[in-house]
Amino acid sequence: MQDIAFLPIGPEIVLLGAALAVLMVAVTLDLGHRMWAAISFTALALAILLSWAQWIRVDDVGPQLNYGGEGVRTASMVVMDHFSALAGIVVFVVAALALLGAWPLVESLERRGAEFVALALLSIAGLHTMAAANNLILLFIGLETASISLYVIAGIVREQPNSDEAAMKYFLLGSFASAIFLYGVALVFAGTGATSIYGGGVEDFVNGNLLNLLVNGREGVLMAGIALLVVGLGFKVSAAPFHQWAPDVYQGAAGGAVGLMAAGAKVAGFAAIARVLAGAFPLAVDIWAPSVAAVAALSVVLGTALAIAQSDLKRMLAYSGVAHAGFMLTALVGAKAGVPAMWFYLSTYAFQLLGAFTIAAAVSGPRTGASALDEYRGLAARSPVLAATMGVMMLSLAGLPFTAGFVGKVGVFAAAVEAGFLWLAVVGLVTAVAGLFFYIRVIVLMYFQQPVLAEGPGTATAAPEPSDHQRIVLGVAVAVSIGFGLVPWPLLNLVQHALPL
Amino acid sequence: MTLADYLPIALMFVLGVGFASVAMYFSWRIAPKKPTPEKLAPYECGIVPLQEPAQRFPVKFYMVAMLFVIFDVEIIFLFAWAVRFDQFGWAGIAAVGIFVALLIETLVYVWKRGALDWNVARRARYRRVVAPERVQEEAA
Amino acid sequence: MGYLWLVIALPLAGAVTLLLFGKRIGEPGAGTLASSLVGAAFLIALVGSYDFITGSGHAEVVSGFAWIPGLGIELALLWDPLSSMMTLVVTGVGALIHVYAIGYMHGDPRYGRFFTYLNLFIASMLILVLGESFGVLFIGWELVGLSSYLLISFWFEKPSAAAAGKKAFVVNRIGDFGFLIALMVIFAEVGSLSYGTVFEEAAEVMTTGTATLVTLLLLVGAAGKSAQLPLYVWLPDAMEGPTPVSALIHAATMVTAGVYMVARTGALFELAPFSAGTVATVGAVTALYAATIAIGQRDIKRVLAYSTISQLGYMFMGVGAAAYVAGMFHLVTHAFFKALLFLGAGSVIHAMSGEQDMWKMGGLRRLMPTTFATMVIAWLAISGIPPLSGFFSKDEILAVTFDKGGWFVVLWVVGIATAALTAFYMTRLMLLTFWGEPRWDEGVAPHESPRVMTAPLIALGALAAVGGFLNTPFRLGRLGAGLEHFLEPAFEAVEQAHLPAAGTQWLLALVSVAAAVAGIWYGWRRYVERELPAEEGGVWDSLLAGYRVDDLYGRALVLPGKKLSEAAAFTADMKVVDGAVNGVGALVTRLAAWLRPIQNGLARSYGVGILAGAVALVVWLLASGGGS
Q1: Parallel, antiparallel, or unpaired for β C66-68 and C60-62?
Q2: What is the ipTM of this complex?
Q3: How does pLDDT run across C120-174, given as a tens digit for each residue?
Q4: pTM for this structure?
Q5: What string of DSSP letters covers C342-396?
Q6: How many Cβ atoms are within 10 Å of C55's Cβ, its own excluded?
Q7: pLDDT tens digit sequence for A472-496
Q8: Model confidence band, residue A344 (pLDDT cutoffs 50, 70, 90)
Q9: What percent of chain A has pLDDT above 90?
Q10: Which of A186, B76, C440, C591 has the smallest number of CB atoms closer than 10 Å to its CB?
Q11: What residues of chain C lie within 8 A of the CB of B35, using their CB?
């Protein structure tokens, strides 16, 4: 028995404790949602501080592997490096804002709001576990903790049939993808005899057998394993062709909940992909990079083409999310060299996505699923703040100069070119330009068209106003989109260090 | 093993996938497709619920069964620890303590939420106590 | 010139201020503020250009901040004679047009918003011309495109204006594709986007093939922005915007960005003679082609729009023939007289209560003396009558082209033919508008425009009259070759075309003047009669419709998209969102509609998608990395 290092798993402990506390408070003390807010946001703030402390600790003593005996291949479970620390900071900040933006939904859920908050906290803990796991099995547990919580969150508004549909589809397909991922873990174990990544794990095996792998290519089992890991994680980040759940789920789930589902899952999913591909198999990059490039190209093309045809904002964002997943995969074809570009893109994209979904929740209501583009016609006249914020989000998602989206795109394309994938950068560039079309269309709808207000329940109100919670989220999203667009280098410098061990 | 050894597997695979795809393609091709809003709705038949049902679904059996399974599995984990508990020492006791505490907390939560109340009257009392707003709605 | 950033910052500050407080400042404060900021920018630029004028200045790179340091993307500005000349034109002509717009936009409900966009445009255009790298150039390039789009569809209540804005946006996007890819290739080859580095190293790093590829792609971008064949179709429709916009953006400044870019990248075109020849040829063909269409137009602004396309063709011919000074010279004089023509036309339209059809004008000469007098100057200038500005600049381009010999002589012939046509359609415009009997609709009472509108006309009239002496082709001492000396430092590194010997020059000038006089003479004879010729049917209809190229593009790009979608099942039931109806947009939309049935809402088919992807990936990785 060795001493327990609490720092690496500190955020998880805090968040799980908070989730339990929220549930207990909800059924014993009838203190209402203010108490839940106090608990959950204190926990999230603590988690952010702990991640920061991890970063500083790694600065001092270098990366750490924790929980495991010596010389055992399935040994160490958790890794603490700059990569996991940054993942923690990004995940927790994004998740805290997402929860803040979801608060109107929490209030409207009455007692079940506590379950929503607890599930959100559990899923956040799971998301961070995915980034900090040094063992594919722990990674899987994190993935499942996050996923199962998110399945329930997708269906939290039981009165909406579309919400049920979303939850069911997400659950069925998610389980399918999880099974594939688990099969991948099994095959990797069969191929290497290890489930851990560092410290005598998969990475060392690949390192030791590199020549064999490259020259003789005798590792069919391992290759199939890698492929299945990519599939399982590709599902979580909705890369094509594993993306089809995303539009239906985003559209069906309650407006207030989608931000957390979409932004959180993207961040952690990509952290996990980068950890697996660039952390565990960096030396086999020549083998897996072409297929990842193919997935990336398919994602940007399909995502862009389909986003153009959408008449619902959330569906459009889902498809654009497919394209953005493709852009981030574009960076990863460079293995470790591409990770900084991915981080920059990822950490700014998450805020834009969150901002856009928060606006959708403000315009169409926190409980409704659909958010038809027609509801945005003439929004500028009805709600100038929302329209202007949405404009910034769209421009940044489109990647126009002086927005964070532009710097991110430049980074991922440069990474792809550096890795020798010029064609992928060209495909990305062309689709990025084509993508302008549907982002700008939202702006045109908001600013240059007359409002069309449909009749009946669940349609847009005449002049939607964001709640105070949502205002904070939108403020941060705008600050990130423009701030890191104008002055990107603080973040650029930071992500340079956030390589997987 | 060479690639040739995989050939029968590959062949089987191709045949399987091929048969399935051909069958699916033709059923898709032949079937008439006239999507209407009703058909595209998540529930193809029955009445779409407009608000949360006044009565909960009778899911008591499932609830109890699920809780039983959870605690059944707990026993399995505890058994493994119990056989060797002297070797795990205080750290082991702490770990198991946390594990059990987590499950107990869950039990307390579902209990308090009324999941174990089979008696409808008792559940109504719960709702009067902790969810008065809904009772008022029902009365109105 | 450390205060160079002020030149950009002033109009930008104006745009921001007016965006926030435009409504509160109101009329005419918003216009006055916007005009004076652009004027101030002009004065600063003038002070900064002083050293270049005296001949003692040298190019200066004003470092901005390192935006994305890892990739060497630095936002630096370049102050050299070329950029200073462009800055002076943009801010000078821009300031005059701003003043004019104070009167022209009188009473518009979005008065403040108009000047917001106008100031934004000036700032964007200055970013474009002052940038020290292709990156900054591209940023300006996109920003002027955006402000152009906003201004064309400024009266977006009119469906035609909204459609025109959209069309300009889509067509420019095609050009931008080419431009962007060119930038990527340059970056991939040289590893930098800074002008200094690229031009210095291009000769060593790039093969002729690469250089040709890069420059042809740049040409695609330039053709989109400067409305050259085949991407000119957006410019005539862009006349839906308010007239000051047509004058500023779609005549004097933005559309010349392509010419500026070719001149700026002369070092690259030098490496690729084929591309340079292509530029000149595209220019010459466009010049002739657009001039023929201009003959058949009835709308006064559309005549000027096609005329602009045609004159831009001349500039392309000049820079393509490596006569950079001549090309830039024509850019400057064209900015004077074409802005004047547009503003004059705007004054006429203003007087005619919005009427733009020349067949419903006539006899305005006495009622609008100032407008008439200034328009006459512009008419003779663009026709190439000495000693007005257009004669000198056009003649210099033609003379240099002739002197290059070979294929360029053919281009010269095209240029001369265009000159005759130009004189003809301008005479037609003048006579139909100002001479003859009034053919006005009932209730129209033409009147001279207010002083705030005529003052810029007079200023531009003076410039259009004497602007030619900036650079007389006969090089009458230092004074006569002012512009050449001024621009000399900017083109030191590239080899330029030369003027022919004096004797040939006199002869060539005689030919072009003869062509111009012939055009005017024929036009005069044809239109001065009381009975105007009926220009209907046959060729005239075809000319009026611009050879029906819009229909052709519609059929070539939109129809295949439709066919594609009809082939796919389900599409009849899928309602495609409106909006994407133009060319490429429609194609992509149809493609999307074709793909949408895959997303059929059934979880099982999504599962099949995942499985298929998984199988494909496994097989791929096994094939590339597994088994032997």
Answers
A1: unpaired
A2: 0.84
A3: 999 999 999 998 888 889 888 888 988 888 888 888 788 888 888 878 887 888 8
A4: 0.65
A5: HHHHHHHHHHTTT--BGGG----TTT-HHHHHHHHHHHHHHHT-TTSHHHHHHHH
A6: 12
A7: 999 999 999 999 988 888 888 888 8
A8: very high
A9: 43
A10: B76
A11: 573
Expressed as residue numbers, the domain containing B112 is 53-139
Whether residue A4 is contained in a domain is answered as no
Q: Which chains neighbour C (Cβ–Cβ under 8 Å, 3 or more pairs)?
A: A, B
Euclidean distance between CA atoms A79 and A135, whole angstroms: 9
Half-sphere exposure of C118 (CA within 13 A, CB side): 37
**Do B6 and C627 make contact, defined as CB atoms within 8 angstroms?**
yes
Tell me which amino acid residue C241 is. Answer: G
* A445 phi, psi to nearest 5 deg: -60, -45
C-alpha dihedral sign at C405, C406, C409, C411: negative
Residue-wise pLDDT for C188-210, tens only, equals 888 788 888 888 888 888 888 88
User: Token pair for residue C466?
Assistant: 């004497």
Q: Within a domain: residue A420? A: yes
Q: Each residue of C91-112: pLDDT tens digit?
A: 999 999 999 898 888 888 888 8
Q: What is the mean pLDDT of chain C?
A: 82
| Inter-residue contact A57 to A7 (CB < 8 Å) | yes
- Is the pLDDT assigned to residue C582 strictly greater than 60? no
Which residues, in sequence order, are bridge partners of residue C357? Answer: C299
Q: Does A454 touch chain B (CB under 8 A)?
A: no
Condensed to tens digits (0 to 9), the pLDDT of residues C305-339 reads 999 999 999 999 999 988 888 889 899 999 999 99
H/E stretch holding C223: helix C208-225
**In a domain? residue A5:** no
Condensed to tens digits (0 to 9), the pLDDT of residues C584-600 reads: 455 666 666 666 666 77
The helix or strand, by DSSP H or E, that contains position A406, with its residue range, turns out to be helix A404-418
Question: For residue B66, is it within any domain?
Answer: yes
Closest CA to A96 of A27, A15, A6: A15
Query: Given B6, B17, B35, which is nearest C573 (Cβ)?
Result: B35
Partner residue facing A241 (CB), from C69, C73, C612:
C612
Sign of the Cα torsion C387, C389, C391, C392 reads positive
The answer to whether residue B35 sits within a structural domain is no
Main-chain dihedrals φ then ψ at residue C80, nearest 5 degrees: -130, 175
Task: Fill in the DSSP letter of residue B7.
Answer: H
As given in the structure block, the two tokens for residue C13 are 């500050």
Do A479 and A364 contact (CB within 8 A), yes or no? no
How many domains are there within chain B? 1
Q: Is A393 exposed, middle or buried (0-12, 13-18, 19+ CB in 10 A)?
A: buried
Q: What percent of chain C has pLDDT over 90?
A: 23
Residue B94 belongs to a domain with what CATH number? 1.20.58.1610
- The DSSP 8-state label assigned to residue B71 in this structure reads H
Q: Cα separation of C382 and C390, whole Å? A: 5
The CA distance from A35 to A17, in Å, is: 15
Question: How many domains does chain A divide into?
Answer: 1
Assign B137 a pLDDT band (cuts: 50, 70, 90).
low
**Is C578's Cβ below 8 Å from some Cβ in B?**
no
Closest Cα in chain A, distance from residue C443 (Å): 33
Helix or strand or coil: residue A78? strand
Say if A429 is an interface residue toward chain C (CB within 8 Å): yes
Question: Does B11 map to a domain?
Answer: no
Q: Which domain holds residue A459?
A: 10-495
Select the residue from A251, A291, A348, A410 to test the C interface by mutation, using most C Cβ atoms within 10 A. A291
pLDDT at A116: 92
A248 touches chain C (CB under 8 A): yes
Confidence band of A172 (pLDDT split at 50, 70, 90):
very high
Residue range C418-468, pLDDT digits in tens: 999 999 999 999 988 888 888 888 777 788 888 888 898 999 999 888 888
Contacts with A27 from chain B: Cβ below 8 Å: 108-109, 112-113, 130
